[in-house]
Amino acid sequence: MFSGAQISLYPMCDDFVGVILGALSALDPYRERFRIETDDVSTLIVGPPEEIFPAMRDLFVAAAASGVHVVLSATVSRGCPGEPDDPRCTPLAGGARGPLDQRIAQARQRVAEATVLGQPVAAQFSLYPLGADAHMDEIYGCIDFLKGSGVFDRSKNFCTKLRGDAGPVFATLSDAFLSFGAPQGHVALDLTVSANSPTKS
Amino acid sequence: MFSGAQISLYPMCDDFVGVILGALSALDPYRERFRIETDDVSTLIVGPPEEIFPAMRDLFVAAAASGVHVVLSATVSRGCPGEPDDPRCTPLAGGARGPLDQRIAQARQRVAEATVLGQPVAAQFSLYPLGADAHMDEIYGCIDFLKGSGVFDRSKNFCTKLRGDAGPVFATLSDAFLSFGAPQGHVALDLTVSANSPTKS
């Protein structure tokens, strides 16, 4: 298993470097379990699939606390057959998974229990279950989960938009990534999260 | 057929609204053939698949001419079975397609003929051929094309990075999107393009 994300943070201000550097310490609690590499376009994090969205959440909320319009963009992936197995990517929760309706109910329960962080965000994302004939069944199941998540905003062309507090929004994104598509299958997720936008929604 | 993209432009400066508004006229030559809708997170363009990357190129080069660090992020899609057919998305070039090695050679030829625009960019992207058992064959074929494109920078986890002039880089991205994955199949592409970054590559 290999799982992780390529993450970029875009603060829309002259001091964007300062905002990014000021937010990076939010990743400190995750550094022990992740491999982290940065270049001029993105930061790679490789580690357990269940911690990818909590790490992105904490990084983004720290940057958004600056008050400037800030966007996090990420390419998230698990189970890519072109990547080497890595022990640090072993899922924390193993075992068999139930049918689609059961996974939807469990995912909603986890979102309902997510801690509210006091940071409003808008998010949109696309889920790609790869190498599977019935990929649209998993996508439609995921959309069903999203509609009852409490943070569903609307369906858009090519993606789904969420809106609400960063806590339940990132919990919803994490479950979309973990609970749909085959457990050992190749699943990718393309994510944009925005805060403090001057544009009315 | 349905094809288009959700596009966002991120100028890293206090006057990000001014930079975005100043670049939008670059889309004027495309407006007649595209449906364009904007909200607080992204701008949707729906139209012919061959014109999606030229439109994004012209928008991005106009924004990068401001000299500020600017990033374009996009979710590009064609053939999604969950989207309605739209006559404006009819491919300009129809007809049968050849085997993988022929498509690679033709794609390289088109990139070699791309106009140089004088704007250096870094780009990274992931290609997702969906609903297909042999999706990795098309991805590896695409990577083969990219390595001989003249703008290949390196393979990264979850994505491929390009670097060079905006003309051949966007031509390479366009051919990665159009020439790989089944002609009528569901193909998505997750894109980040960056210019004027203060970070050394």
TrEMBL record, chains A, B:
Residues 4-83, 122-199 form the Thiamin/hydroxymethyl pyrimidine-binding YkoF putative domain. Pfam families: Ykof. Thiamine binds at L9, T43. GO terms for molecular function: thiamine binding. InterPro entries: HMP/thiamine-bd, MTH1187/YkoF-like, Thiamin/HMP-bd_put_YkoF. SUPFAM superfamilies: MTH1187/YkoF-like. Gene3D superfamilies: 3.30.70.930. This is HMP/thiamine-binding protein. It comes from Aquibium carbonis. The lineage of its organism: Bacteria, Pseudomonadati, Pseudomonadota, Alphaproteobacteria, Hyphomicrobiales.
